[in-house]
């Protein structure tokens, strides 16, 4: 879009220069015609028909100049609009680049957070496994303790019987 805008601007600038050159030539022709008219009026008296002809020529040249000035103004307005559009396009591109950078930063943050979540999950799994192992160990110790208690009670009873026997 920028390249086509630039090409269009260059084309319009060239066309504008051509119109300005044509306008200057027209003004020069008009001035030359005016000079010739003065020369003719100085050297001889012009008839009314010649005066009206010169007047028509001047009017034609003036209308042509006005038309060229309008075309020139229109082209300048178009050039300005294209420049504004180009600036808007550049601003949009810069905003897009900024948003892309921000998006990349956010993506990196999300990736870090996901890694932390994975580590926390792994840590929680490890803790659950350890907790399950501790519960099993506790149950085994309780079984052993009950067995030892039963053995102790039996030994006490055996010792009491032996003591009574003695």
TrEMBL record:
One of its GO terms (cellular component) is cytoplasm. The keyword Coiled coil applies. Keywords: Coiled coil. GO terms for molecular function: dynein light intermediate chain binding; microtubule binding. Signal peptide: none annotated. It comes from the Eukaryota. GO terms for biological process: cytoplasmic microtubule organization; cytoskeleton-dependent intracellular transport. Residues 58-165 form a coiled coil. PANTHER family: HOOK PROTEINS, PROTEIN DAPLE. This is DAPLE protein.
């Amino acid at each position: 879009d920028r390249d086509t805008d630039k090409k269009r601007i260059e084309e319009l600038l060239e066309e504008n220069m051509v119109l300005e050159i044509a306008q200057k030539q027209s003004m020069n022709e008009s001035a030359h015609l005016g000079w010739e008219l003065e020369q003719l009026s100085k050297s001889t008296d012009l008839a009314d028909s010649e005066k009206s002809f010169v007047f028509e020529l001047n009017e034609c040249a003036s209308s042509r100049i006005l038309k060229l000035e309008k075309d020139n103004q229109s082209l300048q307005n178009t050039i300005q609009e294209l420049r504004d559009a180009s600036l808007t396009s550049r601003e949009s591109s810069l905003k897009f680049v900024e948003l892309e950078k921000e998006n990349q930063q956010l993506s990196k943050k999300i990736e870090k957070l996901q890694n932390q979540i994975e580590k926390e999950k792994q840590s929680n799994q490890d803790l659950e496994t350890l907790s399950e192992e501790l519960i099993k160990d506790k149950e085994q110790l309780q079984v052993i303790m009950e067995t030892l208690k039963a053995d102790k009670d039996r030994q006490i009873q055996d010792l009491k019987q032996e003591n009574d026997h003695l």
